[in-house]
Amino acid sequence: MRLSEQSVQTAAGKKLKSAGVLLVAGLLSVSLVGCSKSIKYGDAAEVETTTTGFGSTDLQQIAAKMVDSVLTFPPVVEITAKRRPVMFVDTIKNKTTEHIDTESITDTISTKLLRSGKFRFVDMTKVAAVKQQLDYQNESGMVNQNAAMKMGQQIGAEYMLYGNLSSIVKRNSSRKDVYYKFTLKLMHLQSGIVEWSDEKEIRKSKEKSMFSF
Amino acid sequence: MNIVKLSALLSGMVLLAGCATSGIEATGKTEGDPEYAKHLVIHNEPLANAITITDMKSRFKGDLLEVNVVLSNLTSSDKNIQYRFAWYDGDDFEVEQGGRSWIPVVLHGKSSTTMHAVAPNPSVKTYKVNVREL
User: Fold this and answer.
1) Is A47 close to B66, i.e. CB distance below 8 A?
2) What percent of chain B has pLDDT over 90?
3) Residues 85-124 of chain A whose Cβ lies under 8 A from any Cβ of chain B
4) Beta strands B124-133 and B79-89: pairing type?
5) What are residue A89's DSSP bridge partners?
6) A154-181 per-position pLDDT tens digit
7) CA-angle at A155, arms to A152 and A158, nearest 5°
8) d(CA A212, CA B56)
9) What are phi and psi of B109, to 5 degrees?
10) For a tag site, which of A71, A87, A97, A182 has the least CB within 10 Å?
11) Residue A25 has what pLDDT?
12) Do residues A76 and A70 make contact, with C-beta atoms less than 8 angstroms apart?
């Protein structure tokens, strides 16, 4: 009688164990399925429409328009025909409600302008590092003075690039509309005259889909 | 509801499959035989039946090549398209590869738009513009 009870208990235990194994295997397979994400590289130049927020396509469109515009503006063509004026980039004021890295926009614009061979730049974000290096070269006594870069020989910027990024956001129950306006200006530092200015407008909208999940 | 969701997904997939990555490719050269200076390659016939390149102009602004390509919508419905310029030097080497991104544009029914671009530097002698559906 005891033996038969034991055997029943053992059988029940085995069933429980196998059920447990099945459950663990099931969970494992589910978690494995959950982990099987595919990672792939995309085209950075592709149009990106994930949200109506400021994205890579907006940045690229703005930079392309601004660079094309400044390089073909007749007075600027005349100025850059025989020499490469020195510029510095001031900050772009972000007047939108979004957090946007406007330095990234000006980085792209200044890189394209520099690579066009028409302008040269001074980088105001590196002034402290340059000063530290020049102090080391000229005052530490460690550097051969014949090979040291001399203080007070830098070229001052002739032009300043600056601007604004603003947006107007409107929404109703079925639609969201975002309008961005990027304005860029080029000022001659000595005279204070704005030599060039242009704007890029972008409109993005999102309709609420009929089958929202 | 699930069936509706599924059918919506399926139709989305069909639409996606229908969005061909290829399109129309136009090349313009500033030098050489004028007869072959401009040519068009159609990789996507349905798209080419709906939109067409009606004009290609280029000029030098200073020493930089400036290009205007006119795109016309032959249909009466709006078309969402994208375009990208690529630049080549006198030896047909691509200049500033990847420097230009795809630009989205809405082409309204029976209307035209100008795709404008300026070469990234004075070495550019040939340009190529690709147009495809968004």
Assistant:
1) no
2) 67
3) 112, 115-117
4) antiparallel
5) A161
6) 999 999 999 999 999 999 999 999 999 9
7) 140
8) 43
9) -55, 135
10) A97
11) 59
12) yes
